[in-house]
Amino acid sequence: MKTATIALAASALALTIMSSHTSAEELRFTVWTGNEAHLKMLNGFAESFKASHPDVSVKFETIPPADYTQKLTFQLAGGNPPDAGWLMEDAAPTFANAGVLEDVAPTLNQAQGYNFADFSKPALGLWTASDTVYGIPFSTSPFVIFYNKDLFDKAGLEDPLALAAKGEWDMARFQEVAKKLKETTGKWGFEFKDGQGYDSRIMHALMPPIRAYGGDVWANKECGFDKPEAVAAVQQLHDMVFKDQSIVPPGEQGDYFSGNAAMTINQISRASLMEKAGFKWGIAPLPTGPGGESPVIGQAGIVVFTAGKQKQLAADFVAHMTNAENVAIAAQFFPPARTSVLESDAFVTSNKLIPAEQMKIVADAIAKGKVLPSHDKSPQILTAMKPRVDALWRPDANVEASLKAVCEAIQPLL
Predict the structure, then answer these.
(1) 350 neighbors 331 (Cβ within 8 angstroms)
(2) What would the pLDDT profile of 344-387 be if each residue is shown by its tens digit?
(3) 132, 106 in Cβ contact below 8 A?
(4) Structure confidence at residue 368 (pLDDT)
(5) Given pLDDT bands bounded at 50, 70 and 90, which one contains residue 197?
(6) What start and end residues bound the annotated signal peptide (predicted)?
(7) Cα-based distances in Å from 199 to 137, 189, 206
(8) What band does 31 get if pLDDT is binned at 50, 70 and 90?
């Protein structure tokens, strides 16, 4: 049966080749978005690529973000690699060191009018080594607070944007208003990013408060989870979950985007979900803390896989996706690493759902922020962390002891 199947497939392929003078080519490109607006934009890039490559089509394959890195790894190891795709910042060093990313520098440097020097050097840090370019960041997106203006008004509270303008938006006020919101509206005060802060978004939940308190997690190859700053930050989150009951707890869904939580943390790509939200909303900076203003940036790059069947064609498409014109189009969802686009008036007016003065918050955070921590052993580190962090999210957990256990687990990997 297997031999017959192979023979049939070969015959079908031969017929296809004979029936056409020019064979169409398809690029496989993996992404983690299923958002209709994002996919419409991406397919637009694929369509405009036909101007120079008329026989090429691009198939965007969505893998859910929680499974993305693992499933991509399986595809590469299993001999079924995509040609190109998105890559998260924490996986960049691992994939580069494993030798599975193609150097796209020759293609970018030869692309007409590309102007590689327009990219911010700090933004390229994770994606380059000397003259080698493993990927191009398409999203250098800071975390911001999304808030439900209607719920703040109902609770008689100033919203985070107004508090930030007065210099009063800090971690203490964040805890205070979240508790008040839950008590007066019956809705959750705060929800972690995409409701996944206890699972696939662990670092997205922990890093903003830890940095606000002046801490870090593995700077200089030393675990910082058990340092006083990190302990204080995580203790505050723990208190909000179990004492104040203002943060959506493990096992429950808040769903900010449906109006069931007054605040969440996310990036502006999620603003596309707000068009039909049914309530007034806005974005504000992350709350400050004892460590001062400490914006946290999530970054993602576009890469070409060495094992792909059409590496040069894939590199050409990456050059097309990340030219100045297309970066300006993508900026409505994904804050750019191209300096010319980021500093333009077009950027702050690029997203029709977010007022220009609020988009300036995004630009300011990019200028001042630091990218989420990465490491060439990030997958192993996160795996080692997981059971220790799980133990943290219990009502009777000893936060300091739990974070010490995290350090004991990951220090050998650092």
Answers:
(1) yes
(2) 888 888 888 999 999 999 988 888 888 898 888 888 999 999 99
(3) no
(4) 84
(5) confident
(6) 1-24
(7) 25, 20, 12
(8) very high
pLDDT tens sequence across 172-187: 999 999 999 999 999 9
Nearest Cα to Cα of residue 30 among 78, 70, 82, 79: 82
Record the tokens describing residue 413, joined without a space: 């990997």
For residues 59 and 279, is the Cβ–Cβ distance under 8 A?
no
Joined tokens for residue 315:
């590199």
Per-residue pLDDT reduced to its tens digit, 236-273: 999 999 999 999 999 998 899 999 999 999 999 889 88
- Residue 363, C-beta contacts closer than 8 angstroms, at least 6 positions apart: 335, 342, 343, 347, 348
Task: Give dist(CA 227, CA 98) in Å, integer.
Answer: 32
* Sheet strand arrangement including 281-284: 263-266, 144-148, 281-284
Phi/psi region, residue 167 (left: phi>0; alpha: psi -120 to 50; beta: rest), is left
Which tokens in the block code for residue 318? 């990456």
Contact status, residue 249 vs residue 241, Cβ threshold 8 Å? yes
Distances (CA, A) of 114 to 42, 118, 158: 19, 9, 45
H helix or E strand, kind and range, residue 371: strand 370-371
Q: How many helical (H) and strand (E) elements, i.e. helices and strands, does the chain have?
A: 18, 11
- Separation of alpha carbons 149 and 102, rounded Å: 46
Question: Dihedral through CA 362, CA 366, CA 372, CA 376, nearest 10?
Answer: 140
